[in-house]
Amino acid sequence: MRRMTVTMLGLLFLVAQCRAEKAPPLRESYPPRQVAEGVWVIHGPLGVPSPRNQGFMNNPAFVLTDAGVVVIDPGSSVQVGETVLGEIRKVTSKPVVAVFDTHVHGDHWLGNQAIADAFPDARIYAHPKMIERVARGAGEEWLEVMRKLTKGATDGTRVVPPTVAVRDGDEIDIGGVRFRILHDGKAHTDTDIMLLLPRKSVIFLGDNAGNGRMLRMNDGSFRGNIRALDRALASGAKVFVPGHGLSGGAEVAAGYRDYLRTLYEGVKALYDEDLSDFEMKPKLLPKLAHWKKWVDFDSLVGSHVSLAYLEVEAEAF
Ligand SMILES: [Zn+2]
User: Fold this and answer.
1) Which residues are near ligand 1, the ion (C-beta closer than 5 Å)?
2) Residue 17's pLDDT is what?
3) What is the CATH number of domain 22-250?
4) Measured between alpha carbons, how far is 209 from 204 in angstroms, rounded to an integer?
5) What distance in angstroms lies between residue 105's CA and the mean position of ligand 1's atoms?
6) What is the pLDDT of residues 173-200, one digit of tens each?
């Protein structure tokens, strides 16, 4: 019996070792683009995590300050985080001193591990609701999602949670660069922070906006997301960095907001006519034609209509 237990333990250990084995680094290189002085964005490929993109599909960014480098959303895995560090190394030899995670979705922050391994003193900031979710296991759930979607390309990644809470209105000065936090209740999720760099006129929108790619709204609120983007548009920023897709000017935030608003207002009008959600989609598609070429439009528009329907219904009561 004892021998069997030892053998079983040995086997379990082996299984754990196999699962923990680290998958190879990213095959492709993704050069960063400078969007403002000292502000760089690595625009990831569009689409959902897959074996082909090895799970990399968000927009990690880094900001150079006098105190060191600040990373925003280091990506979905240790592999992506290491790629981000490699790109930072080409620009500066300064250490990474801080990380901001824009929200709880794992494609944005599981790369924390790579930063923490290389720079254990770097502070990792997030909204308190995100810190709470991760403490309750959201990170492990996301590890599993990434592993399945990429067929193991993110293996070797472990959860390194954010630990420093930031709230709406907080201003954090790092090496002469100011980061202002914007959080507007539930938007894309209830954990989102947007980061405004007032002196650089740059705003990081997180997944409150995609550009050329639709985003899931399952954890979000249409009205809250529209409100957050209105606020971003009124912030004085000139450069808008979305969670997915290319950075640009105000049109990045306005384009996604207009999609959400057209869809939500459309659902609301049809709700008042007593239509059910499946009857609404064909009536709404012509109004949404402007966005129909966006990546994942076809796979997400149906769920967006259903989710907006539920929100309109909740609002009506
Ligand atoms: Zn997201």
Assistant:
1) 105, 207
2) 47
3) 3.60.15.10
4) 10
5) 5
6) 999 999 999 998 999 999 999 999 999 9
- Radius of gyration over alpha carbons of the chain, in Å? 21
Separation of CA 310 and ligand 1 centre (Å): 20
Report how far ligand 1's centroid is from the alpha carbon of 12 (Å).
Answer: 34
Q: pLDDT by residue (tens digit) across 139-168? A: 999 999 999 999 999 999 999 999 999 999
* Six-digit token string for 12: 């379990």
Q: How far is the CA of 48 from the centre of ligand 1 (A)?
A: 11
